[in-house]
Amino acid sequence: MACFSWLCVCNNNQRRKQVAGPSSSLQSINRTRSRKRRAEHRAIVPTTSSSSDEPTASIPTNNSLWSGSASSEKSIPQLYEEKAHNLRQFTLKELKFATYDFSKLLKIGEGGFGSVYKGFVKNLDGKEEEVVAIKRLNPYGLQGHKQWLAEVQFLGVVEHKNLVKLIGYCAADTESGPQRLLVYEFMPNKTLDDHLFNKAYPPLPWHVRLNIALGAAEGLLYLHEGLEVQVIYRDFKASNVLLDQEFRPKLSDFGLAREGPTGNQTHVSTAVMGTKGYAAPDYIETGHLTVKSDVWSFGVVLYEILTGRRSVENKRPKNEQKLLEWVKRYPPGSAHFTKIIDPRLENKYSMNGAREIAQLANFCLSKSAKDRPKMSEVIDILSRVVTYEELDGEEEPHRLSTENEEESETESEFDLELQSVRRRMLHLAKLRESTGVIAKRRLALISKVGVGVSL
Ligand SMILES: Nc1ncnc2c1ncn2[C@@H]1O[C@H](COP(=O)(O)OP(=O)(O)OP(=O)(O)O)[C@@H](O)[C@H]1O
Ligand SMILES: [Mg+2]
What we know:
Blueprint (H helix, E strand, L loop, with lengths): L75 H8 L4 E2 L2 H7 L8 E5 L2 E9 L6 E9 L4 H16 L8 E9 L2 E9 L6 H6 L8 H20 L5 E2 L8 E3 L5 E3 L6 E2 L8 E2 L11 H6 L1 E2 L1 H17 L15 H5 L23 H14 L10 H12 L15 H9 L2 H22 L2 H13 L6
Parallel strand pairs: 1-5
Antiparallel strand pairs: 2-3, 3-4, 4-6, 5-6, 7-10, 8-9, 11-12
Helix pairs in contact: 1-3, 5-7, 5-10, 7-9, 9-10, 12-13
Magnesium ion binds next to loops.
């Protein structure tokens, strides 16, 4: 599966080229919640059992996981303690039984963190069997345990239709080393990554793509604003968007999630973690993490949804390998814009909708974190675009000669935008000459509105 999993993006000096965002800036997050200083964090995962097959001690004795929430009223571990009874504690024996001893035939995926198996566990009443996904972490060092613990605690606390449900966990010591497993609700339709990029699957229709984006945005909004404590997801990417029976999205993988800044803090300072191609450049550069880092990653995925291309594709020609640099050459207001739209959509998409999604993506990809929209604003825009019913995606505009095309691709975004405006004005002028009085008035109005209008 995804190859950049749990990648530590270490090059702090690396500065990526930005996709230009709109000039208007939004208010930065106005955080009014006052949170008391929390003195210490208590144990949250069950304590040691002498049997090698029983859950073992997994108690965080330091606060490193939760350093960002030193002043929160309630931290994730506290909330976890209140809700922990919701999670089941499995023995390794139970999970071996559930997966036919981790049979290769039941393996459904592999990430940087371990293998995922389909499994069958009995309900608590022991009567019915439930299909689950069981993630078994690779033998690991401290970091693996830390991420497992974060996942148990965050998913033990959150509850939202767009976040995957954690059913339980297992921590056991065996002769071959410590075992850490997670048991999730089973999501039958793989991930957004599979459906966008794996040609073995039929292409996702336009409206399904938009609804997936909208659901994922709602999941992020819940994390950012819907809990007592702010949560920064930190690993938003297409392979972490699981799809259910109806292709509704659920975010998975909370191993890198962090509590957000509190009190007067504007950000959380942390080692830079995430996935190459999705992490916000300001975060990579400074290690300063905010919810706006998630908004950046969301912008990247919006472009993946529009184009059907991954954020980084090393097999493409050099000037097309980095998605954000490539799409910069085809801004939403330009005549070339349709060139970036996923050809697998076969023009069955809303033209205006696609332009607005690209504008929204650019907004999310604003260079300065504070200029990026809040997820609530992202949702407002997506909710509107989802209602556009016409699938009037254009044919690719007439291709220029190869020579001209190469030339035009090196032109700046501004030049392209300008050319597009000029073309539209000329077009409008021609139309004015050949239309009646009423139409003339309408066109005059349209030309006043300017760049954003496509005829
Ligand atoms: N709850 C689930 N239900 C069904 N399949 C799942 C579930 N969770 C994970 N999978 C499958 O397992 C695969 C691997 O998931 P995993 O999260 O370990 O890796 P990844 O997202 O591809 O990479 P990364 O390690 O970077 O997150 C997913 O792509 C998906 O196909
Ligand atoms: Mg994942």
